[in-house]
Each structure stands twice: as structure tokens, then as C-alpha cells.
Amino acid sequence: MITRSPANVQIASDLASSLASSPSSPPGAPAWQRQLANVVRDPVELCRRLGLDDDALPGARDGHALFEVRVPEAYLTRIQPGDPTDPLLRQVLPLVAETDAVDGFVADPLEETDHTPRRGLIHKYAGRVLLIASPACAINCRYCFRRHFPYQENSPSRAQWQETLDYLREDTSIHEVILSGGDPLAASDRQLAWLVARLEEIPHLKRLRIHTRLPVVIPARIDEALLEWLGSSRLQKVVVLHSNHAQEIDAEVVAACARLKDAGVTLLNQSVLLRGVNDSVAALAALSERLFEAGVLPYYLHVLDPVSGAAHFDVPDEEARHLVETLRDQLPGFLMPRLVREVPGAASKTPL
Ligand code: SF4
To answer: How far, in Å, from the CA of 7 to the mean position of ligand 1?
Structure first.
């Protein structure tokens, strides 16, 4: 049963507010929040910082107008300056191709807005639901299938958060809650601890899954405050990281993964197959190897969801299958991600 103490009501209100605003850094905020508040948001600055020619600027400005640039410093340091083909840069630098209208590429490729029985709650699959725990991201990935998602319409008020919890309590077939976003770890530890404590009170919930890119892009996010609420939860804990390239996994990311494992968290990774980023056997093999060095098992390799503005990242299915078949010759089975597509209305991910 939910305890509606004044403190709980305040945190629910804070969480509701977080769903409607960008991250800010209050005085005395932890290091990760300061990094989150000081990301590079200007495409011109991004190009200048990386010593890129001015011919990259028009496309960067056009794409930025559609989906703003957002790059944390900790990620910027892993990009090779002066290399316009750097696989990390390609994920964050807008190109003029984002303005192209391409048949089949749409604003809501997964038709998620048809599966929101409560604000901020997506219930597509049996036994599990997804909560939009934060609309904010530390990084804006150019290929993101939620780049047009109506976060404001899915930002629950305090009362609506209680309705979401009631929905979970009433449906005893739900055993797993997935925190998503945006990036759920962009919410504060106070807010997340409150939410997870409410989830723990629902007896039929067994697992908490967190889909996040924050430990990869700002590894300082995995700090003591986070480990306290996550490590002490009675729920089984799974963190599904989102990394697309071995170059993203530096020593700080490895250390962040080790802290999560020490807290009893199962670590998996999902990637998106992206033209110009990881569309080679060598890149995919290096990613799997590097993930395992960090204690993370490859889980899914998604083909691109056809979201408008991202068609230039698409790798055709035949090529994707061929890449994965060749990869299988090079890696042990436990390092092989499953190649999947998300199909609107399907009961699970669809293997290719
Ligand atoms: S972090 Fe995830 S939700 Fe945020 S822009 Fe990147 S892919 Fe999209």
C-alpha cells in the first residue's frame, strides 16, 4: 500500500516535475548532475571543439533545429578530434540528411502512443510494463526512435503517478517494471529511490529493469547514492546498457560497470546496428569483446527503427543478417547479440 506521507507526496511531485523539465544542477549537486547540466548543446561549439571543418556546420545546424545537439564532456573526450568519420561523433553530430523525408520513416515507428494506458506507462508485452521515468537524456543520439516522442504528453502529474502505481498493483500478471525514458537515470536518486520503494511494495513485482545509456556516457552517474537505493532493493535488478561501439567503453565505464556488478546487478547491453558506426564484423566483434571485459553480456543488436531523420543510419536486413552470420564464426555463442527488430503490435521482439 502506498504511504502518502508529506515527504512522499513531495517526491512524487518532484518526479512529476522532472518529467516535464530538463535536468538542472542545484547547488551542491553530485558530480554527475553537474556534468549533465554542462553538456555541449551547440553544434557550432561541437564542431569547433573537435577541429572539424566548417563544411560540417550547415548540416549540423539544420539537424540541431529538428533534434537538439546534446553531448556530455565525458563522451566528447572519447571522440577522435579532426575525424568526421569517428563512430562516436557520427552518433551525435547532426547531418543534413536528417532533413530528408524518406518513405517509411515516420515520427512514431513503434506506435508507442497507441500503448499508453496511463501517462508515462507503456504496456506492450505480457508480464512487463515500461515507465517513462525521465524525459531527459544525457546525450541526444541522432538515430533515437523516440526523437519525436511526445514527452510532455506523457509527463504524469503527481496524481497520475499514483494512478500508474494503482495500475501496476491491480494487474497481478505484471512481474517486471522497466524504467526507460529519455534516460531513467537522468532523474535524481531521491526521485528514483522513492519510485523503487513504491514498486517494492507491490508483491507481484519481481524484477526491476533499467534501460540506460548514462553509465556509458557519464560513468560518474554510478555513484554511492545510486548504489544505495539500487543495491538495497528486494527486486532482482537488471541494467541494460546501451553501447554501440567499443570506443565508448573506456576505463571509467569499466569501473562503473564493476560498481553495478558489486551491487548485485545483472548487466546486459543492447546496441543499434548503425551505418557508419558499427556496420562491420570487426566493429561488432570488438564491441562484444569489450563489453565482456567490462562484465557485460551482449543482449540485443537492433536493426534501426524507421524514425524520420535517421534513414541514413539504416542497414538493410540482408546485410544485417550476413554481418551477424559472419560474426558468429568469430565469437563464442555467449558473446553473440540477438539480431532483432521491434515490430509495432508484436508480442515480443522479432528475431531476424
Ligand atoms: S540515450 Fe536513449 S533515449 Fe536518449 S537519445 Fe539516446 S537512444 Fe534516445
So the answer is: 31
